[in-house]
Amino acid sequence: MALKAAIIPVTAFEQNCCLVWDDAARRATVIDPGGDVPRILAAVEAQGLTVEQILLTHGHIDHAGGAEELRERTGAPVIGPHRADAMLLANLERQGAAYGLDGARNLVPDRWLEEGEEVMIGGETFQVLHCPGHSPGSVVFVSTALRVAFVGDVLFRGSIGRTDFPYGDHDALIGAIVMKLLPLGDDIAFVCGHGPGSDFGTERRTNPFLPR
After folding, report:
1. Angle value at C-alpha 148, between 142 and 151, nearest 5 degrees
2. 1 confidence band (pLDDT: 50, 70, 90)
3. N or C, where is the chain less crowded by C-beta within 10 Å?
4. Displacement of CA 8 from its chain's centroid (Å)
5. Mean pLDDT of 128-146
6. What is the DSSP track for the chain?
7. Is the pTM of this model over 0.85?
8. Average pLDDT for residues 165-194, to the nearest whole number?
9. Which sequence spans correspond to the domains of the chain?
10. Chain-wide mean pLDDT for the chain?
11. What average pLDDT does range 56-64 have in this prediction?
């Protein structure tokens, strides 16, 4: 498999920005550039890559705060999340001020994503799943062929995304995890927005937030 990936922790939230690339073509996707754009670009340059697209799982500051700057500096389009997060992306500067993060800029993606669409990451096809609850427009990128997923803040090792925001929906989040993610297979490994990853089987069996 020519697909390679690296995790670049960004911002004070230690968000897992993901750099994913085709090792043969040297073309890369950046997933969730929450900030620290110079650090992201340094990783891109170190690998000799060209950024071809920027994917967002959702519109929170620690995942999307650097997307506009990265788009400007690379010329790569911003794709995602679901349109339901438009209000979050339109208030990134306010989010940044509230959390003490400098440099965040409001943005409108070049393309919104919908349930059932596909995106190409490193030459591989990933399905788009709309998984609201943590935010209204959260999406997950899953490759059933590669048995890997990028889940943003929908699911964590031993936990789930926060739903105590005014727009949060705990039942919707649990429903998305149980009905959309877990049925894809226990062996699917995932990269989450913060902390170490896991796989769907481990979380199905041990995650205290999920029903048995």
Report:
1. 55
2. low
3. C
4. 13
5. 98
6. --EEEEEEEETTTTEEEEEEEETTTTEEEEE---S-HHHHHHHHHHHT-EEEEEE-S---HHHHTTHHHHHHHH-PPEE-S-GGGHHHHTTHHHHHHHHT-TT------SB---TT-EEEETTEEEEEEE--SSSTT-EEEEETTTTEEEEETSEETTEE----STT--HHHHHHHIIIIIGGG-TT-EEEESBS--EEHHHHHHH-TTS--
7. yes
8. 98
9. 3-206
10. 97
11. 98
What tens digit of pLDDT does each residue of 139-171 get?
999 999 999 999 999 999 999 999 999 999 999
71 Cβ contact partners less than 8 Å away, ≥ 6 residues apart: 54, 77, 78, 107
Of 32, 30, 52, 53, the C-alpha closest to 42 is 30
Q: How many other C-beta atoms can be found within 10 angstroms of the C-beta atom of residue 51?
A: 21
Query: Among candidates 26, 28, 24, 88, which has minimal Cα distance to 54?
Result: 28
Mean pLDDT computed over 117-136: 97
If phi > 0 it is left, if psi is from -120 to 50 it is alpha, else beta; for residue 48 that is left
* CA–CA gap between residue 179 and residue 174 (Å, rounded): 8
Please answer whether residues 139 and 128 qualify as being in contact, where contact means their C-beta atoms are separated by less than 8 angstroms: yes
What lies within 8 Å, CB to CB, of 97 at 6+ separation is none
Asked whether the predicted pLDDT for residue 32 surpasses 90, the reply is yes
- Beta bridge partner(s), residue 8: 17
Mean pLDDT of 7-22: 97
